[in-house]
Amino acid sequence: MEEECRVLSIQSHVVRGYVGNRAATFPLQVLGFEIDAVNSVQFSNHTGYAHWKGQVLNSQELHELYEGLKLNSVNKYDYVLTGYTRDKSFLGMVVDLVRDLKQQNSRLVYVCDPVMGDKWNGEGSMYVPEDLLPVYKEKVVPVADIITPNQFEAELLSGRKIHSQEEALAVMDILHSMGPDTVVITSSDLPSPRGSDYLIALGSQRMRRPDGSTVTERIRMEMRKVDAVFVGTGDLFAAMLLAWTHKHPDNLKPKPGRDRSPAQPSWS
């Protein structure tokens, strides 16, 4: 029997809808993971609505929750997964928490979805406070093992624009140099060889050989677009990437075959 694998998921919570912990927790549980969840915010609904109400946790409140876990000696995790956050001090405390957990378990993997903004009609904008960006760049990304920015977020973190696949690879190299061994640009507006009906995601995984050298694997995934509006897809993506890398830690690229999704991804 496979040993229990426990994840600490620190993301948003909404009363109505499925984003953040509401999007990530159940799918991971279905796949056999044990999930402990901290809600970075508690909102009536996601912020894409005309109106939303709720609470935003700060660093002291996160510290208090974590201290409760420590006092009961139940702060033992294999993974930390983080997503939407709105408070600068809270995000800084997440870094302290990850470092403390890595001291207890050197094999702990931190999967960070640096949720900051996106592009609409070719223009990018942030939907979290702008003072979170330097915290992500200077503190969060350096302690992360896996990051899953979209194209706009990758540009913010690297300080470089992406207009081609070559520029995207250069940006992923910059993000590697900041700390993470695995970088996935979950969505982009780059043109697909298959046409305008397809969306491109790009991945880069840096692996260390026994002799101490490193090798980097690059992948491209092309997914057919669906003419609809979805929320929580990035949260679900990060959770499913965590599950995949747990089962296949040195193989970011899935094997082609009958188990492909209906989107029929193309890898190269």
From TrEMBL:
User: Which EC number(s) does UniProt give?
Assistant: 2.7.1.35
Segments of skewed composition (Basic and acidic residues): 248-261
Q: Give the main EC class.
A: transferase
| Entry keyword set | ATP-binding, Kinase, Nucleotide-binding, Transferase
Gene3D superfamilies annotated for this entry? 3.40.1190.20
Cite the annotated pathway.
Cofactor metabolism; pyridoxal 5'-phosphate salvage; pyridoxine 5'-phosphate from pyridoxine: step 1/1; Cofactor metabolism; pyridoxal 5'-phosphate salvage; pyridoxamine 5'-phosphate from pyridoxamine: step 1/1; Cofactor metabolism; pyridoxal 5'-phosphate salvage; pyridoxal 5'-phosphate from pyridoxal: step 1/1
Provide any one GO MF term from the record: pyridoxal kinase activity
The record's GO CC annotations read:
cytosol
Q: Per the database record, which ranges form the Pyridoxamine kinase/Phosphomethylpyrimidine kinase domain? A: 95-203
Q: Coiled-coil regions in this chain?
A: none
Q: Which domain of life is it from?
A: Eukaryota
Q: Catalyses which reaction? A: pyridoxamine + ATP = pyridoxamine 5'-phosphate + ADP + H(+); pyridoxal + ATP = pyridoxal 5'-phosphate + ADP + H(+); pyridoxine + ATP = pyridoxine 5'-phosphate + ADP + H(+)
Q: What GO biological process term is on the record, naming one?
A: pyridoxal 5'-phosphate salvage
Enumerate the residue ranges of region (Disordered).
248-268
Q: Which Pfam families match?
A: Phos_pyr_kin
Protein family: Belongs to the pyridoxine kinase family.
This molecule's function is given as: Catalyzes the phosphorylation of the dietary vitamin B6 vitamers pyridoxal (PL), pyridoxine (PN) and pyridoxamine (PM) to form pyridoxal 5'-phosphate (PLP), pyridoxine 5'-phosphate (PNP) and pyridoxamine 5'-phosphate (PMP), respectively. PLP is the active form of vitamin B6, and acts as a cofactor for over 140 different enzymatic reactions.
What the entry lists under NCBIfam families is as follows: pyridox_kin
- Descriptive protein name: Pyridoxal kinase
Q: Which organism is it from?
A: Jaculus jaculus
Which lineage is the organism of this entry classified under, starting from the top rank? Eukaryota, Metazoa, Chordata, Craniata, Vertebrata
